[in-house]
């Protein structure tokens, strides 16, 4: 029997983290010929993950440009993938999540009549501008997808409401939990020396990430102002802000937080460093989607710096709380977790709704069954 040629396509660090354990699973299956194509929508941060998981792409489109636009990303991916598909003719393309790479790769596969598997399918806010452009990237990808690998039953229900045939939806759990089986260590020593100097036992460390487009400007400014007030009001609190490389985000963060006592401004860490920092910290503040899934696995409460989230399950389970970007609200909700141990414990001990770390093996099993049939 001919091997099933499966091409995994991704371009950003979050995609790479979640696709890595699935790629490792594909590589172990004799019936599958695994091919990897990266767009490098994010260059440096993507390369960190590839090195960590020892993944060598067969194709690297290297599309990243300074001040790249969404139009530029989309057209570059479409044009480059046409050449790759003409050469490889894969039986199936796997994409992940909600990036512009995901949508453009799915569209390119559709034009070549190649089957599309969407990992982490079915997340929705039903507001096309929140998150932007991720919400529409997901919906448009979903319209093209042949196999919807939904992380939860809520995601499956979203797809059913949109008219997706139930036999094409598979609840697998989220592959990000699989990835953490590779990265989290009990007695981890950071490569970043500044992180090793922090007293995680006697200080309450708040890890912060905030970079989404809808938060650029006033949103990031309010987040930074609230962090100044929080550290000034709580002598045992230290903030570690992992500052996104985007120059718009970086300029705002450094304007408000550079030189503030007990606020550490660090560049984005590689995946292993980030996961182990999450394990050591007291709580997390973020506008990231993936962290809302990762932190509950480690028992860390998350304040989501957004007005809406497509991770509804985490909100309903009580592992995350939406606080938006209003300065007073961020301060208030952070102080609740700092001062009310009962509420803190309820959030930290809530059950993670995103699975058991076996999503990748489920996805591979489904691919084999569908193609063998």
Can you characterise this structure?
InterPro entries: UDP_GlcNAc_Epimerase_2_dom (IPR003331), WecB-like (IPR029767). One of its GO terms (molecular function) is UDP-N-acetylglucosamine 2-epimerase activity. Its EC number is 5.1.3.14. It is an enzyme of class 5 (isomerase). The protein is α/β, with parallel strands linked by helices. The chain has helices at residues 13-27, 43-52, 70-88, 100-111, 134-144, 153-161, 175-183, 193-196, 218-233, 247-257, 271-280, 290-297, 312-317, 327-339, 341-348, 359-372; strands spanning 4-10, 32-38, 59-60, 92-96, 115-119, 147-150, 169-171, 204-209, 237-242, 263-266, 283-286, 302-304, 320-322. A 7-stranded parallel β-sheet has the order 3-2-1-4-5-6-7, sandwiched between helices. The chain has a 6-stranded parallel β-sheet with strand order 10-9-8-11-12-13, sandwiched between helices. α12 (290-297) links the parallel β11 and β12 (302-304). The radius of gyration is 20 Å and the shape is globular.
Strand content: 15-25%
Give the overall average pLDDT.
Answer: 94
Strand order of the largest sheet: 3-2-1-4-5-6-7
Quick one: biggest sheet? 7 strands, parallel
Query: What is the rounded distance between the termini?
Result: 12 Å
Radius of gyration: 20 Å
The SSE order reads EHEHEHEHEHEHEHHEHEHEHEHEHEHHH
Low-pLDDT segments: none
Question: Based on CA inertia axes, which overall geometry fits?
Answer: globular
Tell me the number of strands.
Answer: 13
Structural class: alpha/beta
Helix count, DSSP H or I runs of 4 or more residues: 16
Proportion in helices: 40-55%
């Amino acid at each position: 029997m001919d091997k099933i040629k499966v091409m995994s396509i991704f371009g950003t660090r979050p995609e790479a983290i979640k696709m890595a354990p699935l790629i490792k699973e594909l590589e172990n299956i004799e019936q599958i010929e695994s091919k990897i194509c990266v767009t490098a929508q994010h260059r440096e941060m993507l390369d960190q993950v590839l090195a960590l998981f020892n993944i060598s792409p067969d194709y690297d489109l290297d599309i990243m440009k300074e001040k790249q636009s969404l139009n530029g990303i989309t057209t570059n991916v479409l044009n480059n993938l046409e050449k790759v598909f003409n050469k490889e003719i894969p039986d199936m393309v796997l994409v992940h999540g909600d990036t512009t790479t995901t949508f453009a790769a799915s569209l390119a596969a559709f034009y070549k009549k190649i089957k599309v598997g969407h990992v982490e399918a079915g997340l929705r806010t039903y507001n096309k501008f929140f998150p932007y452009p991720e919400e529409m990237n997901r919906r448009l990808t979903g319209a093209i997808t042949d196999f919807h690998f939904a992380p939860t039953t809520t995601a499956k229900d979203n797809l059913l409401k949109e008219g997706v045939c139930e036999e094409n939806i598979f609840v697998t759990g989220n592959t990000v939990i699989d990835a953490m089986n590779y990265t989290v260590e009990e007695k981890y020593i950071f490569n970043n020396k500044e992180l090793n100097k922090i007293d995680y036992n006697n200080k309450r460390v708040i890890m912060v990430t905030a970079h989404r487009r809808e938060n650029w400007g006033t949103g990031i400014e309010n987040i930074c102002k609230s962090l100044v007030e929080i550290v000034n009001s709580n002598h045992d609190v230290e903030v570690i802000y992992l500052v996104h490389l985007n120059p718009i985000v970086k300029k705002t963060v450094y304007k408000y937080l550079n030189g503030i006592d007990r606020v550490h401004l660090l560049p984005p860490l590689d995946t292993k460093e980030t996961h182990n920092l999450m394990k050591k910290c007291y709580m997390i503040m973020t506008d990231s989607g993936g962290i809302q899934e990762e932190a509950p696995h480690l028992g860390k409460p998350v304040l989501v710096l957004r007005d809406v989230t497509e991770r509804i399950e985490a909100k309903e389970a009580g592992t995350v709380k939406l606080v938006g970007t209003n300065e007073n609200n961020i301060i208030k909700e952070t102080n609740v977790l700092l001062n009310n141990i009962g509420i803190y414990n309820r959030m930290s001990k809530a059950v993670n709704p995103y699975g058991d770390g076996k999503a990748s093996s489920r996805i591979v099993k489904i691919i084999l069954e569908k193609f063998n049939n």
